[in-house]
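Late entry, written up from scratch paper. The run itself happened at the end of the previous shift, but nothing got recorded in the book at the time, so transcribing now.
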Amino acid sequence: MGRWHHIAVSYDNESGAVTQYFDGQEVSREVSKLHQPGRAITLGPCEIGNWGLPTQGHQFPIRNLNGAIDEFALYGSALEAGEVREMFEMGKVE
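Output as recorded:
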């Protein structure tokens, strides 16, 4: 794409809603089929920008980021749409 974009994902542990944002605008929302209200969320081994080594017969064998990540942040609670929009506006490259 040749330019910077703001990407955010918010997960509400109470409702199970996963919301994805692109440049401050909501582009997707759904409730996880695996949601269990109040269940603790833990992250095991993971890589930022890469989903690990491809597995035999996987639908998406190559799943990596071709680009750069700047200002990665992980919050302890779900962000509201206005908060995501404000972060995008504050960091927007003119």
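The chain has one helix and three strands.
(Scratch paper discarded after transcription.)
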